[in-house]
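step 4 of 6: structure.
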Amino acid sequence: MVGGGGVAVEECVGQVVLPGDVLFLPTHPDEDGERLRLGASPAPPTKLLCGPGLRRCDAGLLVTKCGLLRHRQAAGGAYWVDSQQKRYVPIKGDHAIGIVTAKAGDVFKLDVGGSEQASLSYLAFEGATKRNRPNVQVGDLIYGQFVVANKDMEPEMVCIDSSGRSSGMGIIGQDGFLFKVSLGLIRKLLAPKSEIIQELSQLYPFEMVLGMNGRIWVKARTVQQTLIIVNILEAYGETVFKASSSCELTGVTTRICKKNVAKMTSGCEQNVWRKCLKANTHF
Amino acid sequence: MGERAAAPPAGRHQWEAAVLQEAKMAAGSGCCLRPFSCELGLLSRPDGSAAFLQGDTSVLAALYGPAEAKGNRELPERAALEVLLRPKVGLPGVGERSREQLLRQTCEAVLLGRLHPRCSVSLVLQVLGDSGSLLSCCLNAACMGLLDAGLPLASLFCGVTCALHPDGSLVLDPSTRQEQEARALLTFAIDSAERKVLMASTKGTCSVEEMQQCIAAAQSAADTIFQFYRDSIRRRYSKS
């Protein structure tokens, strides 16, 4: 696959592209500005969306990140590059977990893992007024979404959606465990039918918050169960590189779950767990 | 291109490509590159890391960014790139500083810094072994590190070193002994879009025609290196 001369973009979907590759957009044979359309005819194609990792250039699309090229047909079509990264760059509309680092008057400063700290106004919580302030301390975890995130301005987060409801956002409660994984793993976990989430939910009941900035917060009933789930997710992130098909992946996750549970639970708890499995109850 | 698949430790990808490239010169002498290999994502703390080996010369590159820029280092319209090169033994000296500037100029030419204003990108290179062609190995490691970190790039670049012997023959990717015998040592950074020369560093004397021959040889050797980059990245993404 030569990137120097330029390749048609449809041929590269699902393949690895490197920065510097030029992809030609499909040309439409009946695109003639002079001709007037009379009667029923197919509607002209809507605008093509150029997603992360691609930039418009005069010849077509210029690839700026290495990864797999993906395509979505809906809503006019979109192309983007699926790349693996560790560093997060804030994007408007993303939900992320931030750590409160400072309270400056009416605004909280959050560390979201990007190049700048995000700001969060105290009024951006559900039911917050000037008299009824939210109880946020330095060191708290906040799950919110970005309303302002571009390269020129400081990012801003809010914990309410456009209709004023919190819809799951806000201060994350006491206890639990926060850890960092790669951004690609978060996207895999947030995919509609993620096998690892289904496998984990059969192990223990637990709460999990996934932030698009690579941060995951987990809380289960006991500290040991929490740590088991954390280790399983971190091991899953490593093995995602090795499994080449989805059926192999399911087998791998089952093995990780069993291996981690066997290794990390103490003897008595393991026996209790086995008894509970037989009795089909949670503990 | 022969490939040997080693069993990678968790989180690491290792590929080896034994490359014997014959680049025939107008002077008639055959040139070939030493076998090279690379490993991506081997360090856990930096945002991107790569180790590049050319024969016995090996360089480890670590990239941090885009991160917060400190004080007067931040530039209002683009990212501030900082390069640190650490030799294998001893403290960094003037030679390391000049190589750092050459690497910084090359990386700034391809990095789309305007997408991350007031941020800083730090590239730290550690020389693990030096047996000739050190600057081109640093360039290759820097490019693979930039790819691993996911920073936006306009194109890729690679480094090729040429040694001119007193009898006029040309050797690509020279070893330490060949470098000492040569009367001129030229290093070029070639970009992937149009095979243009991004950076040229010369030590010794050569004529203009000889320099043109070296540039032509470097551009044909760059094809091999870019194909190797593509195969490495393809191998990495085919498993995830």
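step 5 of 6: annotate
 - The interface with chain A takes residues 10-11, 13, 47-48, 65-69, 110, 112, 115-120, 147, 149-156, 191-194, 229-230, 233-234, 236-240 of chain B (CB under 8 Å).
 - Helices of chain B lie at 94-110, 134-149, 176-181, 208-237.
step 6 of 6: archive
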